[in-house]
Design a protein that fits this description.
The chain is of the alpha/beta class. The chain has eleven helices and ten strands. It is globular, with a radius of gyration of 20 Å.
């Protein structure tokens, strides 16, 4: 888990993002590959390393300055992180106690209050830790925080229904309408995701008594990360918008252009960055695709 305070892209106002590790997808364009696992992870930024050897001197496993050949032996004890003078060794996934997370959230509560912000659960995939999500969302909801969640959509719905119903805003990804293409680029079928998008329409936020309010559900935004060469065809965008309009007529959609901001994380994790076949659609193409969404009767959102 990692916390990112002062975020302004994942809901209204100033927010703290809670990145919860563990994701069932392996999207080939992923910008948060550290979230694939729920184990603690130490990263090594070669470009920051000055070769002083401070990390090697304190490593109980005998891992040298060059971390990549010996990553399998790393226990993520963090000794090298503390020793490195240039922050070339960093914690990328950390085990955190839920109450410590809540205390950290409280430190920034004035920023949420004055900006209309709150807390956004992200990942990785927040629903991959259903017990933690339930506890944090329940406690923070009862404290009056505005809550949002970003999800890949690939999860069992009923175990997280209560958590989702506490949200003011739900972002859910729809990466491709074609099942085969979805499998090719993410490693899983889109069938469960499409079902869960439909299920979002059954959510009802708790009223003052704690019972579901029959008339009020969370605001829903279906997100498409637009990857040039993968899912940016007019046919796919039109089919995606038509599906959203048919099952969630009150929802909006947000189209996000592909970026490579996560490339440095692959370096830190010793993973190959194999995204040469993808490109970022330009502003004109993005606006054309958004107009297709609107033609299908779906409003568009922009939280960037």
């Amino acid at each position: 888990m990692q916390l990112q305070p002062f975020s302004v892209n994942d809901g209204e106002g100033i927010r703290t993002n809670i990145f919860m590790a563990g994701c069932p997808l392996r999207c080939r364009w992923c910008s948060n590959p550290e979230g694939f696992t729920q184990k603690e992870v130490i990263g090594w930024y070669r470009r920051r390393c000055i070769g002083c050897g401070a990390c090697a001197a304190v490593c109980p496993e005998g891992i040298g300055i060059e971390m990549d050949p010996d990553r399998s032996r790393c226990t993520a004890c963090g000794a090298c992180v503390k020793a490195c003078p240039e922050k070339a060794r960093v914690r990328m996934v950390t085990l955190m106690d839920a109450d410590d997370v809540i205390r950290e959230i409280h430190r920034h509560r004035l920023f949420y209050s004055y900006s209309g912000g709150g807390v956004t659960f992200s990942g990785g995939e927040a629903t991959s830790q259903p017990e933690m999500l339930d506890y944090l969302s329940r406690e923070l909801y009862d404290m009056g925080y505005s809550l949002a969640i970003e999800s890949c959509g690939y999860f069992d719905f009923e175990p997280v229904r209560s958590s989702l119903e506490r949200m003011d805003l739900i972002f859910m990804d729809l990466k491709h309408m074609d099942t085969g293409a979805h499998m090719e680029y993410t490693g899983v079928s889109n069938e469960k995701i499409l079902e869960n998008i439909r299920n979002l329409g059954t959510l009802r936020r708790p009223d003052a008594s704690g019972e579901p309010d029959r008339d009020e559900g969370p605001e829903i935004v279906i997100r498409i990360p637009v990857i040039g060469g993968v899912n940016n065809s007019e046919e796919n965008i039109r089919a995606s918008a038509a599906y959203v309009h048919s099952v969630l007529p009150g929802a909006k959609m947000e189209l996000l252009p592909y970026h490579r901001l996560g490339a440095i994380k692959y370096e830190a994790l010793g993973m190959p960055f194999d995204q040469e076949g993808f490109y970022t659609p330009d502003a004109a193409e993005m606006e054309r695709l958004r107009s297709i969404v609107r033609e299908q009767g779906v409003g568009t959102a922009d939280y960037r």
